[in-house]
């Protein structure tokens, strides 16, 4: 018990820094960033950013690879992203300062409408798709959270997801992820990741700028309404 408690305390100490928290949030879209890009996101000097990244790497929260003179880092895995998103959800109440500028308010509103949570869809868009899949019998939330046989066939035959993306992974096929803006569940796991990748590839969903925010395109709205039998916001 003492060893586990010490491990929790060490992890909490790593997370208890606003600069490192900003870097982790920037990496929640699943992409790899350079140290320089994260320094600009966090508003710190490159040398300071490198020190913070070393702490995150040592804690096992990030992995890195080098390409030429550039150092790229990203979240270690989906479980790490899930941890960060859960912390955001728990901190999403009175402890979070409201935006003080129109730009910040617009950015927060865009994230609430739709965003990526590591490699799956979140925000109102992610929750709405999850609700529609559940209503159509493609997801079951009666006893746990799972993709039904009909849901697997729908993903492969109707949406065009590669079957290999749903198999042979260590992560669960479906995982409930608490949405920190909607306070409800959206679809994570291998199925959530495969669905997000397919919607982005088909340009049914597109990124807004360089951050995590995404939006449903007109073509995507029509396609998903047809596939799910109800409009998606």
Strand line-up of the largest beta sheet: 1-3-2
Mean pLDDT: 88
Strand content: 15-25%
Strand-pairing-aware structural class: alpha+beta
Q: What would the principal axes of the Cα set say about the shape?
A: globular
Unreliable residue stretches? none
Q: How many domains make up the 3D coordinates?
A: 2
Oligomer: single chain
Rg over alpha carbons:
18 Å
Helix amount, in percent? 40-55%
Quantity of strands, as a count: 11
Quick overview:
Helices cover 50% and strands 16% of the residues.
Structure write-up:
- The chain is of the alpha+beta class and 233 residues long.
- The chain folds into 2 domains: 2-76, Arc Repressor Mutant, subunit A (Orthogonal Bundle), CATH 1.10.10; 99-228, no CATH class.
- It has helices at residues 2-15, 18-26, 35-42, 46-58, 78-90, 102-113, 123-135, 149-159, 189-201, 218-228, and strands at 33-34, 62-67, 70-75, 115-117, 120-122, 139-140, 146-147, 175-178, 185-188, 205-207, 214-216.
- Helix 2 crosses helix 3 and helix 3 packs across helix 4.
- The radius of gyration is 18 Å and the shape is globular.
- The mean pLDDT is 88.
Tags for this model:
233 residues; alpha+beta; Arc Repressor Mutant, subunit A; 2 domains; 3-stranded antiparallel sheet; two-stranded antiparallel ribbon; 11 strands
């Amino acid at each position: 018990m003492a060893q586990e408690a010490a491990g929790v305390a060490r992890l909490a100490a790593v997370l208890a820094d606003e600069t490192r928290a900003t870097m982790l949030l920037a990496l929640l879209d699943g992409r790899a960033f350079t140290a320089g890009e994260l320094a600009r996101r966090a508003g710190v000097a490159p040398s300071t950013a490198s020190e913070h990244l070393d702490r995150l790497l040592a804690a096992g929260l990030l992995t890195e690879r080098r390409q030429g003179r550039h150092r790229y880092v990203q979240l270690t895995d989906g479980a790490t992203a899930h941890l960060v998103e859960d912390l955001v959800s728990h901190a999403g109440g009175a402890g979070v300062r409201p935006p003080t500028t129109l730009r910040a308010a617009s950015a927060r509103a865009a994230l609430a409408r739709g965003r990526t949570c590591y490699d799956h869809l979140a925000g109102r868009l992610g929750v709405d798709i999850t609700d529609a899949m559940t209503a159509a019998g493609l997801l079951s939330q009666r006893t746990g959270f799972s993709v039904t046989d009909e849901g697997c066939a729908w993903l492969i035959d109707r949406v065009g997801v590669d079957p290999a993306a749903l198999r042979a992974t260590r992560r669960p096929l479906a995982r409930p992820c608490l949405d920190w803006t909607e306070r409800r569940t959206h679809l994570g796991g291998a199925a959530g990741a495969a669905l997000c990748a397919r919607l982005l590839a088909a340009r049914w969903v597109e990124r807004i700028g360089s951050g995590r925010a995404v939006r449903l395109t007109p073509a995507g709205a029509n396609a998903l309404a047809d596939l799910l039998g109800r409009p998606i916001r």
